[in-house]
Amino acid sequence: MSGASAPGTLLAGRVAVVFGATGWIGRAICTEFVRSGASVVMVGRDSERLEEVRRQLGGGDQIMAVVADVISPLDVDDVRRAAVERFGHVDLLVVSSGVISGSAFEDGVPADWAEMIDVNLRGLLHASQTFAEPLLTAAAQGGAADMVLIGAVSTDVRAPRFAVFNAVSAAIKQLARTLRYEYGPRGMRVHIIEPGFGVDPHHVSREELASRPARPRPRESSPVTPQTIAAVVALAASLPPGANLAEVLLLPTEQVLS
Q1: Chain-centre distance of CA 217, in angstroms?
Q2: CA dist., res. 186 & res. 182, Å (int)
Q3: CB 124 within 8 A of CB 173
Q4: Is 13:238 a contact under the CB 8 Å cutoff?
Q5: Distance of alpha carbon 245 from its chain centroid, rounded?
Q6: Distance between first and last Cα of the chain
Q7: Angle at Cα 71 formed by Cα 67 and Cα 74, nearest 5°?
Q8: Is residue 142 classed as helix, strand or coil in its secondary structure?
Q9: In what order do the strands lie in the sheet with 247-250?
Q10: DSSP bridge partners of 43
Q11: What is the residue-level pLDDT of the chain in tens, covering all 258 positions?
């Protein structure tokens, strides 16, 4: 594995499915999982980018890449089937698929809103519902079972020009809280990680990147990097089954919410 330390055992024996595996957060999470000893099913829409990530992680039997669109229930079902056939079970799900576009609300494009709702919310619902059964099975057998949703700190800061994205993100946060109450008594942990930093250039519209006013980027020393997010996800999944790192608001030290 290029540039990686020797594999650890923090998540040895775990089988993780990561939606949005080719994004900058998803890629870092896959890297951390493999480094920690988990088997990983990487899911994304772009076969070339999936293959690139697979090669970067060193390939091997520990890694499986599946081309699928999270907004297609049939695709998501196929991912579950393939994962269970390959590894025997799934006990860790991460949903980091997402798109973002922004504008003054009165100038918003309904097609952009529909895409955010489809990918960020409807796709997340498909993935969470489809993998709830294998996760609950793992929990019933006495092992750890984790559903990790990647949210957005904007639900707390109410960032202007991103009203619809903020609304969808708030729905995801509420879903995580509700599922935690529904599934916690059955042994499944539900986590939501809300990082505070710039958007993924792969997931933002080209027009928005061109038109948005420049904003200061976090310092290079800022702890909120994809690798830091991945470390928090791995930490949450590695805790004893009786403890749940339920909600994480991850901010640069210098950032203050308003």
Answers
A1: 22
A2: 8
A3: no
A4: no
A5: 15
A6: 41
A7: 65
A8: coil
A9: 63-67, 39-44, 15-19, 92-95, 146-150, 189-195, 247-250
A10: 19, 66
A11: 444 444 588 999 999 999 999 999 999 999 999 999 999 999 999 999 999 999 999 878 999 999 999 999 999 999 999 999 999 999 999 999 887 777 778 888 888 888 889 999 999 999 999 999 999 999 999 999 999 999 887 655 556 788 888 889 999 999 999 999 999 999 999 999 998 754 443 344 333 333 333 334 444 445 679 999 999 999 999 999 999 999 999 888 776 665
Apex CA 99: angle with CA 21 and CA 65, to 5°?
20
State the DSSP string of 168-195. HHHHHHHHHHHHHHHHGGGT-EEEEEEE
Tokens 């056939």 sit on residue = 85
Specify the length of the chain in residues: 258
